[in-house]
Amino acid sequence: MAEILIVEDDKSINELIQRTLRMMGHTGLPAYTGREALEVVEKKRPALILLDISLPDMNGFEVMKETEDIPVICVTARDEIPDRVKGLMAGAEDYIVKPFALEELSARIQVVLRREQREQTLYTLGGTEVDIRRSSVKRDGEPVELTHREYTLLKVLLENRNIALSRSQILDLAWGLDYYGDDRTVDVHIRRLRQKLGLEEQIKTIFKYGYRLEM
């Protein structure tokens, strides 16, 4: 679960994004001005900032100068090409123009968080060790035989750890966009991973949505 700062002066939009983040398994930290945002950053050090460019006290570009070590997605009504270019050149990971679909925002958030997490190749989950570089999986020191699909699914969960993934997202990531199976395929393979690796507590079921690997 990641803490994500939402810098948006429109209260209704801020609350809507907070609800979306909760559904994804994250925590939204609201800020309604640039100065509030900087105060939150100093105290919390969030994993990601969703930043409106037009704020009542200072613009988003000024906020970005003070938060250079934290990834930023600009979420703004300013859709002119110069603004997009300025935001990206200032260091933003992405630039989303209002109005936006919540599904698109969720996907872009996951892409940025996953990009930040991909450098890790060795994982420990209780008694299970996964070495992505060597394609090795061990439980209590003993090798575990996984099918190709089970291993691919495990890798997807690790790369998206602490992020809630819908069943359809898991199908796309682990099975490919051209796969036409149904969601029950995901449930069957999740059950096998839990049993083989003892991950009943780590792989959480998100009711009527999907799964999240908690680490």
Helical fraction equals 40-55%
Number of extended strands: 12
Class by alpha and beta content: alpha/beta
- End-to-end Cα distance, whole Å, is 8 Å
Order of helices and strands: EHEHEHEHEHEEEEHEHHEE
| Inertia-based shape | elongated
What would you note in describing this structure?
By secondary structure, this protein is α/β, with parallel strands linked by helices. It contains eight helices and twelve strands. Strand 6 and strand 7 form a beta hairpin. Helix 2 (about 35-45) packs parallel to helix 3 (about 60-65) and helix 6 (about 150-160) packs across helix 8. The longest helix is centred in the middle third of the chain and has 16 residues, at about 100-115. The radius of gyration is 19 Å and the shape is elongated. The model has no long low-confidence stretch (mean pLDDT about 90).
Features:
single chain; 215 residues; alpha/beta; Rossmann fold; Arc Repressor Mutant, subunit A; 2 domains; five-stranded parallel beta sheet; four-stranded antiparallel beta sheet; 8 helices; 12 strands; 43% helix; elongated
Give the SSE map.
Layout: E1 3-7, H1 11-24, E2 27-31, H2 34-44, E3 48-51, H3 60-66, E4 72-76, H4 81-89, E5 94-97, H5 102-117, E6 122-125, E7 128-131, E8 136-139, E9 142-143, H6 148-159, E10 165-166, H7 167-175, H8 184-197, E11 203-206, E12 210-213
Parallel strand pairs: 1-2, 1-3, 3-4, 4-5
Antiparallel strand pairs: 6-7, 7-8, 8-9, 10-12, 11-12
